[in-house]
Specification:
CATH class of the largest domain in chain A: Alpha Beta
Number of domains of chain A: 2
CATH superfamily of the largest domain in chain A: Dihydrodipicolinate Reductase, domain 2
Catalytic activity (chains A, B, C, D): N-acetyl-L-glutamate 5-semialdehyde + phosphate + NADP(+) = N-acetyl-L-glutamyl 5-phosphate + NADPH + H(+)
Strand content of chain A: 15-25%
Helix content of chain A: 25-40%
Family (chains A, B, C, D): Belongs to the NAGSA dehydrogenase family. Type 1 subfamily.
EC number (chains A, B, C, D): 1.2.1.38
Oligomer: homotetramer
Radius of gyration of chain A: 20 Å
Largest sheet of chain A: 7 strands, parallel
Protein name (chains A, B, C, D): N-acetyl-gamma-glutamyl-phosphate reductase
Pathway (chains A, B, C, D): Amino-acid biosynthesis; L-arginine biosynthesis; N(2)-acetyl-L-ornithine from L-glutamate: step 3/4
Distance between the termini of chain A: 34 Å
Chain lengths: 344, 344, 344, 344
Amino acid sequence: MINVGIVGGTGYTGVELLRLLAQHPQVSVKAITSRSEAGVKVCDMYPNLRGHYDTLAFSEPDAKALGAMDAVFFATPHGVAHALAGELLANGTRVIDLSADFRLRDADEWSRWYDQPHGAPELLEEAVYGLPEMHREKIKTARLIAVPGCYPTAVQLGYLPLLEAGLVDPSQLIADCKSGVTGAGRGAKVASLLAEASESMKAYGAGGHRHLPEIRQGLGDMQPNPVGLTFVPHLTPMIRGIHATLYSTLTAEPGDLQALFEQRYANEPFVDVMPAGSHPETRSVKGNNTCRIAVHRPSNGNTVVVLSVIDNLVKGASGQAIQNLNLMFGFDEHMGLNAPALMP
Amino acid sequence: MINVGIVGGTGYTGVELLRLLAQHPQVSVKAITSRSEAGVKVCDMYPNLRGHYDTLAFSEPDAKALGAMDAVFFATPHGVAHALAGELLANGTRVIDLSADFRLRDADEWSRWYDQPHGAPELLEEAVYGLPEMHREKIKTARLIAVPGCYPTAVQLGYLPLLEAGLVDPSQLIADCKSGVTGAGRGAKVASLLAEASESMKAYGAGGHRHLPEIRQGLGDMQPNPVGLTFVPHLTPMIRGIHATLYSTLTAEPGDLQALFEQRYANEPFVDVMPAGSHPETRSVKGNNTCRIAVHRPSNGNTVVVLSVIDNLVKGASGQAIQNLNLMFGFDEHMGLNAPALMP
Amino acid sequence: MINVGIVGGTGYTGVELLRLLAQHPQVSVKAITSRSEAGVKVCDMYPNLRGHYDTLAFSEPDAKALGAMDAVFFATPHGVAHALAGELLANGTRVIDLSADFRLRDADEWSRWYDQPHGAPELLEEAVYGLPEMHREKIKTARLIAVPGCYPTAVQLGYLPLLEAGLVDPSQLIADCKSGVTGAGRGAKVASLLAEASESMKAYGAGGHRHLPEIRQGLGDMQPNPVGLTFVPHLTPMIRGIHATLYSTLTAEPGDLQALFEQRYANEPFVDVMPAGSHPETRSVKGNNTCRIAVHRPSNGNTVVVLSVIDNLVKGASGQAIQNLNLMFGFDEHMGLNAPALMP
Amino acid sequence: MINVGIVGGTGYTGVELLRLLAQHPQVSVKAITSRSEAGVKVCDMYPNLRGHYDTLAFSEPDAKALGAMDAVFFATPHGVAHALAGELLANGTRVIDLSADFRLRDADEWSRWYDQPHGAPELLEEAVYGLPEMHREKIKTARLIAVPGCYPTAVQLGYLPLLEAGLVDPSQLIADCKSGVTGAGRGAKVASLLAEASESMKAYGAGGHRHLPEIRQGLGDMQPNPVGLTFVPHLTPMIRGIHATLYSTLTAEPGDLQALFEQRYANEPFVDVMPAGSHPETRSVKGNNTCRIAVHRPSNGNTVVVLSVIDNLVKGASGQAIQNLNLMFGFDEHMGLNAPALMP
């Protein structure tokens, strides 16, 4: 049994950590911080947690208290983990950061996309990008994990077999992605109101989105050539879910694409390659840590279409964070992540 | 470990049984029947079950195979359990019927509401109405359980403390109920299409609904006087959830209503009385077996308003069925029903 | 052709006035005010208005400019019309107030519910409550109209035939109402986010809601006895629409209720009594000024159930405001309000 | 004033014709046919039409009665217009076919995609493809119009300026399209239930969709080279709306793309080029005949991204059909199509 803390627990990734960890037999949540809600019990804010966390209350962030934990999750806006991670690591506490703070290896690029200096460049070398399907061995011994973003998870897992096999042109990739509204967080914004966002579909960030450099870096790690990626995210009228539709151009006769995907992911506990011809639905992973993938080659032509779905709050955030924790502490990789998706 | 079968597994209560039982450490689903889908693997129909039931397939109903089970759930239209329950019971198999077949103690009344003769009146005396908050001790030794309907569960749990205490007039009850569309089942009906049922609200069955006699019978069991109930169900544009808004007229000075409810349900694992002044949301029980209740007395007047929410597929069907099974087989009442609701 | 202004045009009732008035052949919108958005073109904020109002921009409120209009609509929070209406009326400009400022005839009661002194009690005597089905003749000559609230419109139109005919007990009324989320306005509140409000149902204000005294006053005007009303509003996961389910107790043998309703509303252009046995859907009035009503008497008992649906932004606000304007200026009552509801 | 008939009026495009034509001052709907609903009044099936079509009832299809009309709309499954169009044309009745029957110029290709022989190849030469932005002059004198499909309309209008100007490679086009569920029609299919299709996103037809050859033909008409198009449609949890996200590769320095689009559509009444940097929302055209378009060139690279939104039932079907009728009969092109979109 280990003790963990959560920094910034009032957002959707924070409450999702609590929901999932309530089912984890080896983890006890001992602290959860929020400046704005200090003193409030988590079950008063999230009634679904009544009966599961009847005494846990939000507290002011306190590095000493957090430093007594075995691990601390950051479910915070960018910049917060920069400020605290170093001290926690020095105390021997492992850090699992769900924010963007340690995802980009290049501090300058981070600064350009986030419009502020990088707050902890000295930790970048040790940070491990927490995509188990790419970096499982490093994760096992890591002290500091950068949990991948939601879009980057769906996109990277979809392209991985094709790029590793060198079958498609990495300079001509198009990722058309659709996300539920929890991807925009729990902030009170007019554009996220039900009255504004339901019964409608729109793209956003077509000119450039902060997940673009992260995805580019990840795809670059899969093969040696420069990556050219067009990434257009869309806001979809649903609570959870990401659907990535991934286009790429074949550079060689690919053989059996279905077999390629099945073999690549044969031993991956949380990637499910659907039968040939499938169209995965986001609801098939609602509340669940699986990424379901299907691969198509329309009209046997030069374009490969990969369909990749995840729950943005689970495999795209809190579930993947727990998968990382399981690897770091030697637990079964499935622990706390067993429940089937809620469908219907 | 016990072996169970499910008759009629293609509907929403069937797949919900599979979803929940996937997490039950003492139950193994050995058979699931469907005439129309015989031979199809359940995970091909419900991709959320991939990785949980990779070999289980629908089979033709077969009384002999089912009779080898410790328990059989009926997730069928009315009439089916009438035909099969007797033979199963004779084989020593316990029967948990999610349909309406054994809910009404009066076979004639059943016939009037369901427009057909009752198929197994000889079993009515032994059937136990599976509302643990009313009949826990009988359930423990029952062989045949009639799982309450979804509306009846929400309505009865909301009125129970008031009627048992004799505080309200049982002849003037009004239950205004709102249900998500899974309450209408998985049948392909135009009125249940997203294009028809979303962005809209409507009542139905204002002139009389099949759940009315069941509710009336249950409320009658709580106190000695005749029950007069107006019950109006409404179709709500959401997948899951029932919200019952229950009106009653005080016949005496009630004292502390909040305390009354809290005390009545103090030891109930799946009824949560919310703090005074609360308005429970259906999403706080999405995927979960809890009934959350709040009690209000507007302007300190003579009308009491009880707000009672459940997930129609869980506490209103499959979850309650498993709660009954746990009681019947001596398992912890929570077993397989531990996960917090999915929120957001 | 008359010229009108709109004060406070950034909210949902403001944009709905613009949408409807774009089709009105006798009205030209010459000014629309908003402190926060002054200088912004309305079609930049509301792209559905592109091509309809290509030059109209929000301006600072200016009593002189507004005083040059034939009529001014207030689509503002409470208190604003108090401050400006008197000056406009003195200039000969007619005022149609969509806020609550002039709905209650009793200034003290207004102060209690809105927690501030009434800002224009001297205008109360002249203000006309703009429910045409009750006050058509007075509206025609009014200078100051208090447009009814959304819930009050649905509830009053539903009870009107019963109370006028003296058939039900006015001291035992129960109005269970369900509203889409635009009823909560365009403010950026967490509870109104799609991620919070969709896939869920909840009551609110069960202990007392500001529309209660307005409804009570209106029902009191229909018959001579004291009104006892329990009013419970619910938030429903849809954009527009109110469904009022209205319960009352018969005090006499009612005769033909269907005929009673049909006769009372035979000449009302915007009240549609549905055929006996109907259950009106809110979507049948989406974007439209009609109130559709059905009346039921379950099991031929003592309880009458009236189902009354409106679009909260149209008959519940901006459409009814235009209906009032049509009456005040001698236009055809339908003018600008002809389009059928958007369905599906 | 002209008289029109509608063949197959029970589906969504049929009722949408009725909704829009209720506002058309020069059109009277004299007949609407449906075998399954013959005798039923349209306002009994679609209560939003109460007060607009109080006597019109569905009738059995009757070529003689239809032949007395000035124009007949076909809102039917494919194959029906093949059988009837010839006879109507011979009677001097103009035919506006919303189905796919006359969209493809090549009867053999039609047969391949629709798995049946083409029923009226002799009419293909005279049929005019009813996309006014491409074929306005031909439409004005046409007797037989093939109204474009919903996806084809959104995709063609988005690519048109780029292809006409020869700026992009027509052999490498990718159209990622998202549609509301009315695109699947009013048939009672399990996959279209609210309980199945809401809170989820999925692609379909990734291997080939019937709109593909129609789009290919249209794009081919815009420029001289062979078209290579990958088209992936997605089902989106909303009632109405298509969002097409269109990718293409520049073959030359394009100059000012924004100006190119604005100039191409400067005189088009139903194409709205949004300001540079915009992301059009489908709700901005809900119920409205406009196509709103934005053009992006991410990072000033070689990929152009066009965002194109329509209401699938209006510009994607019934509204465009009426736009064609207006052109054919010399009415103002806007007639009956003036109302702003319903937003929120």
